[in-house]
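Changelog note: in this version the structure field was regenerated for every chain. One regenerated record is shown below for reference.
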Amino acid sequence: MKRIKTKVRPIVIGTRVYTDSLDRGEGVVYAIHSEQTPTEYDVVFHDGVKGANLTEHAFTGPRWSFLDGISSLEEITDLLAKSASSKAQNIADMQKKSLWNRNDIQFPRLIAEIMASQLLDTQALTDTMDITLDELNELCDRAQQSWHDAQSSSAQKCTKEEILVSLNGGQNFIAAKEGVRIIYQNVMVDGEDGRGELHINATHEGLISDVWTDGICDQPGSTPSDYNIGTESSTIDDIVHRLVTAND
């Protein structure tokens, strides 16, 4: 598809764009926030990633190009559905990885599964461990109970944790049903020439952190939120487990 490098072009819903920033590739403008000054645009890329609050300055930057044609509503809907599916899969993968890395869950699971599926030489095992048969049975029962407790705990987490926020230093809290977004402005970004922003997105699944910058904030019309140069995600389980084990 032909790429058009131009400084002036009307941007509408369905405008096709291309960027080699972070190897994103092709994308489509799916929302326009004309109430903002300057106007901001949201883009969904073919790899499922979204770019939010982009200004016209971003599209005219050296790493962006316009593509021929306008995407249909059906194409935009398909890309947004792919993006939602990709986000859900990423969350599921993070949760699975979090559980897999937890020794307090996987070790009891291993013992419980071995006892349930393997024929063990209990005499050799008790001799090697220097324990009695009763003590071996007790260890196996404890492992089975720990694995059962871990399964029950995971099932109970189907209910969303409640998020409470305070805007007055903790004097009062209100429920944030849709999560909380925080932006740290004018932060220094390593390896970049200009200022940047740190975006924190607190959801019911965990925390998502993004660093945005344009690297050329000295130019007229530039903003510190044109390029996402770094992102990190942690589930609630990851954070809690890391804090607990750090104090062991």
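Spot check on this record: The first helix runs from residue 56 to 59. The mean pLDDT is 77.
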